[in-house]
Amino acid sequence: MRLEYFQMLDGVERLDLDLPTLVASAQVPETSPVFEGHFPGHAVMPGVLLLETMAQAAGYLMLASDGFSRMPFFAGVKKANFRAFVPPGADLLVHATRVHDGSGYAVVDTSILYGGKSMADACLIMRSVAFPNTALEQHVRSEGTRLGLLKETHA
Amino acid sequence: MSREAALALAKKRVEIASRCVSAIETWTAAMTSTFETVARIIASTSDVPLESITPDSHVMKDLEVDSLGFLDVVFEIDKTFDIRLPVEEWLQNVQGGYDGDTYFVLRNLCDYIDQTAGSAAVA
Questions:
Q1: What's A72's domain CATH number?
Q2: What does the mean pLDDT of chain A come to?
Q3: Which of B71, B78, B79 is the closest to A75 by Cβ?
Q4: Residues in chain B closer than 8 A to A76 (CB atoms)
Q5: How many domains does chain A contain in total?
């Protein structure tokens, strides 16, 4: 994780396009300015960043499902639970499973596990639209390569 | 015309009328059922009171359901009727100048759901 860049996932551990489901790894940094404020003397990952982490897993699941042809945007949260504190340095597994494939949107069940224990879960609505510009598309494809979803291409 | 022939003709007419009434009742029941289900979905996913929803209500203009709220409605309709409303295509058509009443007035939306769910059941 690089919190200040909103780069929440480190790599894709498993992808099954039949279900479809994705499992990604995410290591919380030991130190970050975020922890100086959240909270002094009791550093924990903010729930909003855990939600963003789950949304990114949902987004990459959608990207992988449609061959990186459309951009998924985080559109809504049907429910979210934060069940335990996530400390600095935690090795997380982020799960995302699409439960409904709508027209231009998807509903995705997500969860975060630490040491086999559920730390957070959420049911998210993701909208997918055409990439608004090529710069974003290139960035997302580059991130897809970093996560292991796309193979590196050499021009 | 003999009395017997007139009687037979009258019986035939009653039979045809009875079939027509039955068909209309079936269609009305299906429409009512779909409308009631969709109205309940809208009321439960938004702040719109159930009693203010009519078959002539436009989901966005009259009931003021916004685009994200409408996604919630569509998700529940998709699940309930086991269909996939082509909302993306509809919204693109509306942006292109097509009359949105065709899609978003409840009477028309329920018609579409009945046709789609019916053809899915046949398939």
A1: 3.10.129.10
A2: 95
A3: B71
A4: 68, 71-72
A5: 1
